[in-house]
Design a protein that fits this description.
It is built from 13 helices and 15 strands. By secondary structure, it is α+β, with helices and mostly antiparallel strands. Strands 8, 9, 10, 11, 12 and 13 form a six-stranded antiparallel sheet that branches. It has a three-stranded antiparallel sheet with strand order 1-3-2. Strands 4-5-6 form a three-stranded antiparallel sheet, with helices on one face. Strand 5 and strand 6 form a beta hairpin. Helix 7 packs across helix 8, helix 8 packs across helix 11 and helix 11 packs antiparallel against helix 12.
Length: 425
């Protein structure tokens, strides 16, 4: 990340702060922060606004593909003995006396009801934590408040390099970043309090206007609405602290709560601490269930797809050790060597692979939750939906009526990722 400096005092301010960060990171540091001259800053960020630029501060962070990591975690769990149910909705709890003894599920495809019993039940449902807790106790006090972060996606030409731009404090006190990701540039973010958890959160007009206006301030080329490939939002589950001001200062740390019935809830937290969250809640679950304590192996457990050597390159790099198997799928038919759409870095073989090996059941699954096509180019993903449906139908033995329903359903969601539709709201 490079922080462009336009005010004289910002360089020592951020420079000292990041050197302290380096020391706190210790051996886990990804690299030492550096101060940059104007020339060095422009070399790393050739498309940053040059007027008034005096230099920059460089620091290191890591990035990942969240959709791929979520799938790999489910695969890893299954490989270690977990029974993973997709498209299964929790509708209630089984109580024996005053204790939770299991859950009631509904299969969304068949509408079949399922009961699963267990000595410990963990509610780890992110922004939906409180709605699940209410199924256990209708009087449960809410644990969470919600913050929406919105983003827009631009072509890679807006950064033209591997480094990211970070503005820790804009004129109105917000954070702005532009990050290279999958040959695109993600611009974010906002921090807007919202009253409830929406399964498909979408940015408001004022959020997008903020992002567009500030991107124009810091990028040499001002983005236009026609440049925006997709817009999207995410919700942050923040543990409530009564009397707090706004959402920016609320805790991002995780919290574990045990209800009077013995339901364990783990909430808050973030991707970077998920292994610690898992260890903490499983250790607590051992106590609730009366199990003997065992050492938790999660800290150094390799995930499904982990490579023993250097990471692979190329379009299938995010699949890690599964990449050769996807290459084998391509050999089944000449059409499976083709890309799904000219503007998407997604191959037809990846759609087949997701249906066979990654529990993908819908077009939305493959274009949003296995690949990030809907984020990389919303219009292209909408155009690709019929072909994705056709490939999935062949794998899952679905008919043409299923394809039509799936395409229509996906396109309704994809339309919410188009900036022109959001700016009308």
């Amino acid at each position: 990340f490079v922080i462009p400096v336009y005010r004289r005092l910002d360089k020592p301010f951020y420079g000292i702060g990041l050197k302290l960060y380096d020391r706190l990171a210790g051996k886990l540091s990804l690299g030492s922060s550096q101060t940059l001259s104007k020339r060095e800053t422009l070399k790393r960020l050739p498309n940053v606004e040059p007027e008034g630029l005096s230099g920059g501060i460089l620091y290191y962070d890591a990035q990942f593909d969240d959709a791929r990591l979520a799938v790999n975690l489910a695969q890893t769990a299954a490989e270690h003995g977990a029974a993973v149910l997709n498209q299964a909705e929790v509708t209630g709890f089984i109580h024996e006396g005053e204790r939770v003894a299991g859950i009631v599920l509904r299969d969304r495809e068949s509408a079949e009801a399922l009961e699963i019993r267990g000595k410990a039940v963990v509610n780890a449902t992110g922004v939906f934590t409180d709605s699940v807790r209410l199924l256990d106790d209708a009087k449960a006090e809410p644990l969470l408040v919600f913050s929406r972060g919105s983003h827009l996606v631009l072509p890679s030409e807006f950064l033209s390099g591997p480094d990211a731009l970070m503005v820790p404090k804009t004129a109105d006190g917000r954070v702005l970043f532009a990050i290279p990701w999958h040959d695109r540039v993600i611009v974010g973010t906002t921090d807007i309090p919202v009253p409830s958890a929406d399964p498909e959160p979408a940015p408001r007009k004022d959020e997008l206007q903020f992002l567009m206006e500030h991107a124009a301030k810091y990028l040499k080329k001002d983005p236009q609405n026609s440049d925006v490939l997709s817009v999207f939002s995410g919700l942050r589950p923040l543990v409530s602290r009564k009397g707090g001001q706004g959402t920016a200062g609320l805790s991002r740390d995780h919290t574990i709560v045990v209800s009077p019935t013995g339901l364990l809830t783990v909430t808050g937290g973030k991707w970077t601490t998920y292994r610690q969250m898992a260890e903490d809640v499983v250790n607590r679950g051992e106590q609730v269930a009366g199990f003997s304590s065992r050492r938790c192996p999660t800290a150094h457990l390799p995930l499904h797809g982990a490579l023993s050597g250097e990471s692979s390159a190329g379009p299938l790099a995010v699949y890690g050790a599964d990449a050769p198997a996807i290459e084998a799928v391509k050999k089944e038919s000449p059409e499976l060597t083709e890309t799904l759409h000219p503007r998407l870095p997604v191959g037809k073989a990846e759609i087949v692979w997701a249906a066979r090996h990654e529990m993908a059941r819908t077009v939305y699954d493959v274009l949003a939750r296995r690949t990030r096509a809907i984020i990389l180019d919303a219009a292209a993903s909408s155009e690709a939906a019929p072909e994705a449906a056709r490939l999935m139908a062949a794998e899952n033995h679905r008919d043409s009526a299923w394809c039509r329903e799936q395409v229509a359903s996906f396109r309704r969601i994809a339309a919410t990722h188009l900036i022109e539709n959001r700016l009308r709201g």
